[in-house]
Amino acid sequence: QVQLVQSGAEVKKPGASVKLSCRTSGYTFTGRAVHWLRQVPGQRPECLGYINAGNGNIRYSPNFLDRLTFTSDTSATTAYMELSSLRSEDTAVYYCARDGGWTYGTTLFDYWGQGALVTVS
Amino acid sequence: IVMTQSPLSLPVTPGEPASISCRSSQSLVNSNGYTQLGWYLQKPGQSPQLLIYLVSNRASGVPGRFSGSGSGTDFTLKISRVEAEDVGVYYCMQTLQSPYTFGPGTRVDLK
Hints:
Chain A is mainly beta. In chain A, 0% of the residues lie in helices and 49% in strands.
């Protein structure tokens, strides 16, 4: 079965960086993009962008262009997200999600990681 | 693209129907004629889960009591008969233009 398992909660100081992982299993990692989202408690989710390890495509939200880096390790079927220059407003739950929409002509998040709380304080 | 929803809070009686509206600031129809609108449910303490994609297609495993409709900029999610397990926050989401954006959410709870 498809699973996305994220690394654990992190506490960081302002100005530091955080790197989260999303280990996938149960499907061909290079066949689907992995998206990253975040959600401040009580607010709507926010899309950060995605990485497609199959074709090398990476897209970042314009709001994070200079602070966000997506990478992947195909042998470990794992996607990574690094956010730098952290500030208190970056405190949120960060999710990875698989894009299962290729065959339907859309983007849809059919499997999600469990989320990782990042606290900047 | 700005997404709005109404109502933001919806108390429901089990067994009764429920309806949530979603509106986008521009048409969500892509160049192939597909409308890029989906619905997600976030149950308390859980990650969001996909309910509906391309306006009206139920995701695998989603009960038949959920249905989506709409076109262009106006969309609706309906639950024919609400069950206790349906409580949570419902989000519409557009995937026409990056960054993809969610509506503010509609919190559904039981009366």
